[in-house]
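Morning F.,

Quick status update on the modeling queue. The single chain you submitted on Monday has been processed. Sequence for confirmation:
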Amino acid sequence: MSFKQHLQFTQVKTIFFLLVLFATLTANAQTFTLSGKVIDSNQKPLMGATVTVTKNQGTATNANGEFQLQLTKDTYVIEVSHVGFKTTSQEVNLTSNQQVNIQLISDETVLDEVLVSAVRVKADAPVTHSNLTKKEIEKRNLGQDIPILMNYLPSVVTTSDAGAGIGYTGIRVRGSDATRVNVTINGIPYNDSESQGTFWVNMPDFSSSTQSIQLQRGVGTSTNGAGAFGASLNVLTDVDSEKAFGEIATSYGSFNTQKYTAKAGTGLLNKHVKFTGRLSKITSDGYLDRASSNLQSYFLQGSYVDDNTLIKALVFGGHEITYQSWNGSTQSEIDTYGRRFNSAGALYDTNWNVIGYYNNEVDNYKQDHAQLHWNQKYNDNLSSNIALHYTYGRGFYEQYKQDADFADYNLTPITVGGTTINTTDLVRRKWLDNDFYGVTYNLNYKNDTWDILFGGAWNQYKGDHFGEIIWARYASNSELGSKYYNNYGNKEDFNLFIKATFKVNDQLSLFADLQNRNVSYEANGVQANLVDDTFNFFNPKAGLTYQFNDTNSMYFSYARAQREPNRTDYENGNPKPEKLNDFELGWRLNTKKMKINTNAYYMRYQDQLALTGEVDNVGSPIRANIGESYRLGLEIDATIKITDYLSVTPNFTISQNKNVDFKETKGNTVTKLGDTNISYSPSFIAGNAVNIQPIKNLNIALLSKYVGSQFMSNNELSASKLDSYFVNDFNVNYTIETKSVFKSIVLSGLVNNIFDKEYSSNGYMWGTTPYLYRQAGTNFLLGAIIKF
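Structure tokens below.
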């Protein structure tokens, strides 16, 4: 038996043992049926409401607002929540089969209401999506970034530069990189305007202030940011608590990882005002050598609320100092120096042997955000939201460069002892200083038949790019504080959209979404020294949902998306805007024991700006228009309740991701390669969680993730192939309910990669040489949260 087969056999035995053990524990337990119906203030059933009890068991309501749970004899607190409604709870003493009706009151004044309608979809919408709730986030919130916490969602692949999920992390959805994942925070765009990427390292521990996350796969609905080509990720921050609270959280783990969080809220003051705040600090040495992270963040929000008005102000931000670990390593370097080798800051002799390291090869960046939201309810049918936002980012990355050419730094050759010198060792800092501000607005009208939303946004970005030499062995004609380049990038984005859902009857509803987006971008320091482009994109979307019965429904949608190139695209060529037609066909099953989502998608691209697998001379990934391409796939995810104490949540994606009649151009030579695989697009992705609740307040989970092999180039070069990997994590949570000073103490443990799999989740090509990002072997995190 091979080592891999032995591991797989061991996993099967472990799962089988757990199943048998907990089936035995529950075999003799007498169970009763707790059923009920969730309705709104108009006595109408609410589909998709989340119903949970204190043993971490739960379900969702069907199309008729009905739910059912099998529970043992006990006293339970039922908690029911739904987007746009106040969460309510009710105590039930279950001694026999019992039925309850629960009414949710529409909470028009919470931030979620109009805002969620603008960027999110409801459970029955014809859009493929997954939700991650606060309770699910808390189970593994021990310091790792939001992309890592989303690792087990369908079609998701995550990676970490430092190898352990702290520092620079990334996410791909359906093979699309982070520049195609449109991220909003409370409806405010978060993607960097020029690179279009998302840098979660600038918001460490933001998960501790997150209420919920919705991931829309494919184009999704119109949002206030750039067009999505792989997914839309919508983050909602915490809702202010009605009661005063305090919370202290800490964790410690492998690679000297430490996390400290303090959080508090005033509760409702004078019936109108509430405040919530958080401070966090995370440090880690990282899995790779010198891949350290020193991260600090803050979050503060205050709100004023009355019967018809909510005004909420938020300020949050972070400061990250990370030793660079974005170089990757060749197999030769790994063989010579080991898997944890990090070439960033390395100093070499004339034979390219490492002789030391520069001790400050760091990325040092600060980012502060301010948001002001005003929600207004005019009557039972009409409400609005307007938001102002401002983001200030500034920082640099510092590098030691050996034998740098004078010409690259605007230095004049000098003569020393009769010898002309035109190279020098130096230390440089490359700075980014930017401002991003704007306004978003939404107006929502709804009645029994129509739900119409009109919205839009205007956003302005101004960024300065400049470089400084802070030390040089031969300074030539340089002056202290002088800049060897000084560039800018200015971008304006204006969009309008209207979305409408029309309920034809109890079974059929229609959806339409029209967006017009105008973008102007001006920059220097790129190809031809100046960019001055204007784009106007019309992005229509339409769909329908048909409810066959209480448990079965189907949907179909079409969406058109177009988007502009980013700054790096201009620096590396003369790019065209890219276009996408996205078709989605889905079936949803929702029963008492099982919830299954099945979705087939066909994404047809024109001039897709796909990753080539190469990086430029400053390490930025290079993209290029690849003509016609498509992604064709099938996604299935499920939640299956096997017993009251055991459930599984599997998902998998099978896909074809192809360049059509791909042509590779090298100099004046054009080679036709036929249909090739799109880079960074595995054809099979799978995830699973086995969840066990053997006793009250104890949750145990075995988490598994498989990612198939993928190419790091579009020409299917054999050296560019990333091997498949199968990784398993173990997560345990136990809540101690106290009646003294503290409300509760939550203990958490997470063991990542429990079978010590050696794998690389990402990489790039330098010519024909692959550079790989190795991920950590077995590692752990332990944490505690004290709530009072």
